[in-house]
Amino acid sequence: MPDDPRVLCVDDDRDTARMTAEYLQAAGIDCLVATNGEDALARLDEGRVDCVVSDYEMAGMDGIELLEAVRERDDRLPFIMFTGQGSESVASEAITAGVTDYLRRTDAGARQLLRRRIMNAVDQYRAERGLEDTRGRLEGLHHHAVALAGAHDRETVVDQALVAAERILDFDVSGVYVVEDGTFVPQTDRSYRPAGDLPTVDDGVLGRTYRERESVLVRNVLEDVTAEPDQPEFRSAVSVPIGRYGVFQAISEEPNAFSETDKELAELLVTHVTQAFDRLESESDLRRTNEQLRAILDNTTANIYIKGLDGRYQLINDRFRELLGLEPGEAVGRTDFELQDEEYAEEVRENDQLAVERGEPIQIEETGEFEGDERIYYSVKVPLYGDDGAPVGVCGISSDITELKERERELERQKERLDEFAHLVSHDLRSPLSVARGYLDLVRDEVDHEHLTEIANAHDRMENIIDGVLTLAREGREIGERYPVSVEAVARGAWGNVDSGAATLSVVDDTTVDADRDRLLQVFENLYRNALAHALPDDADRVLTVTVGTLATSGFYVADDGDGVPASVRDGLFDPGQSSDPNGTGFGLAIVERVVSAHGWTVELADSADGGARFEIRT
C-alpha cells in the first residue's frame, strides 16, 4: 500500500506551524515543519515530500517566492497556500504562480478542509507519477527489445532480460527457469536459485504457470493454495510462461508487492524473451525461411509481421491474422491500404519507410482500426537487408497499449476538471460568499431580524453545495489499490463517522470484497447520511434502523425501515443535485454511484422488507 502522505508545513510562526502539523498528524498525515523559506527548501532536498503547506506573509522569503522556488524543483509538487492574512490579490497572485490550492486559516472548518485538499492533491500527484513511471518502464522495455532481438546466445538473452527486470521493472529478485527433464533449471548466475531440490513442472506456481501457459499473480502465498514456496520468507510473486521453454518469475518478501500493471509489463518483457529464444533455436537466418520465423511468431501476443519495400505483407503472425479476420495466407501480398482505412494505412506506411531510410530500428506509436475498433500500438520496426547489404523490407513488432493510453487520457481529463473546479471553488465562488458572510455579520451587529437567520442558512447551504460539487469533481472516478476488505468492518467503521442520533445499525452477515477501503467507507457514509436525512421526514419520534447484509449473488446491501424513496425522484436518484430534501445538496448518492462504478460494480435502488429504501451493490 502507498505510504502515508508526507507534508511540509511552512510558517514563520512556530506555534501556528506546530498546531497545523499536530492536527494533520492526528489525521494520519506525516508532517515536517519549517519556519522560513530557506529551511523549507533544505527540507525538500533532504527526502520525500508529497505536499507543501505554506503561509503567505513570512519574514525573508514569502509564500509566493517559496512557491516559485519549489516549482523550479518540481513543477507539479502540490503546494497549498494556507494563510491567515490572505486577500483576493494574494489569491490571484498565488494562482498565477501555479499554486495547487488557496485556503484561509480563518475560514470555518479550515483545517478539516485543508486535510481533504491535501489528500486529494497527493492522490492526484501520485497518480500522475505512477502513470509516468509506467510509460517510462514501457519505453525502457522496448529499448531492451532491440538488444534481445540482437542477442547471439541464450545466456545473453537471459542476462539482458533480468537486467531489464531489475533496472526497469524494479524486481529485486527474479529468474528465468527452463524446463529440463521435468525440472526447472535456473538460467545464468543472475537467476535466483531456490534452496534445496529444484522445483518440478508438477509443483507450485512455477509448475502451474508452465502447465497452463498462463501468467499467475500471487498477492499472498499464505492465501494461495497453489503456492508452495521453498523459501517461506517470500510472500508474493508474479510468474509468466516463456512459451514452451519455461517460466520467468519475480518474488518478494512482502505481500502484495506486485500489481496487475507489473504483470502486464513482465508479460511484455517475456514476449521479447520468448521471441529471442525462438530465434536462437532456429538453425537458419530468419530472413531466408518463413518456416523458421513462424516458430517465433506463434509464441507471442504481439502483432509481428514482415513487409517488402513495396509495403506488401510477406508474413504475419496468427494473432495479427486473426485480428484482421483473415484465413491463413490471405494477408500475404496485400498492403495496409487493402486491410484498413487510408488514414491509418498512410501512417503505417510512412513509419515503415522511416525505418528503412534511417537504416536502424525505430520505436513509434501507431493507430489502427480493425473491425471498427481503433487501437493504439507501440511498434518496433527493424529494416531487413539482403545478402548484398541493400534493404529488402521491414520487420515489425507492435504491442497493444490502448488501455495504457486511455488511462493517460482519463488522467488528463480528470486533471482538467480538477483544475477547473478548484479555481471556481477557491476563488470565483468562495470569495464572494466570504464577503457576503462578512456583511451579514456587520448587519447583525446593528439589526436583529428573523430573516437574517434565513440568510445565514442560505450561506451554509451554498457552502455545502460548493463542497459537494468539488467532492464530485475530485473523487469517485479514480480509486486506489484494491485489497480484500470485510464489508462488516467497513460498515461499522462508517457508522461511527456519521451523526446517527438515536438511529441503530444492524449488520446481519459479512462478506469480503476487493476494494479501495477509503472509497468504500465513503459509500457507506453517504448511504447512511441519505437514510438519516430522508427516511423519516414526517415522523421525528420514530427510531430508524439501518441494516447491512450480503446479497444471494455477489455483493451487499444497505437498507432502512423508513418511508422509502418518493416516486418523483427515483428516475434521477443518482444524478448530481437530485434531492427530495430542501436542505440537501443532492451530491451524496451521485458520489456513491461514481465510486461504485469506479470499482466496476453496480448500485440499484429497491424496496426494503420494512417498506424503506434498499440500495443493492453488486460486485
Structure overview:
The protein is globular. It starts with 5 loop residues before the first strand and ends with a strand. The chain contains 18 helices and 22 strands. It has helices at 14-26, 37-46, 63-73, 88-96, 110-149, 154-167, 204-212, 260-281, 290-297, 318-324, 336-339, 342-358, 402-446, 450-474, 487-495, 517-534, 567-570, 588-598, and strands at residues 6-10, 30-34, 51-54, 79-83, 101-104, 173-180, 183-186, 216-218, 236-242, 246-252, 303-308, 313-316, 362-370, 373-385, 391-400, 483-486, 504-507, 512-515, 545-550, 555-560, 602-607, 613-618. Mean pLDDT is 84; it is low at 283-287. The chain has 4 domains: 1-135, Rossmann fold, CATH 3.40.50; 150-281, GAF domain (Beta-Lactamase, 2-Layer Sandwich); 290-400, 2-Layer Sandwich (Beta-Lactamase); 483-618, Histidine kinase-like ATPase, C-terminal domain (Heat Shock Protein 90), CATH 3.30.565.10. 45% of the residues lie in helices and 21% in strands. The strands form 5 sheets. The protein has a 5-stranded parallel sheet with strand order 2-1-3-4-5, with helices on both faces. Strands 7-6-10-9-8 form a 5-stranded antiparallel sheet, sandwiched between helices. The chain has a 5-stranded antiparallel sheet with strand order 12-11-15-14-13, sandwiched between helices. The chain has 619 residues and is α+β, with helices and mostly antiparallel strands.
Key attributes of the depicted protein:
single chain, 619 residues, alpha+beta, Rossmann fold, Beta-Lactamase, 4 domains, five-stranded parallel sheet, five-stranded antiparallel sheet, 18 helices, 22 strands, 45% helix, globular
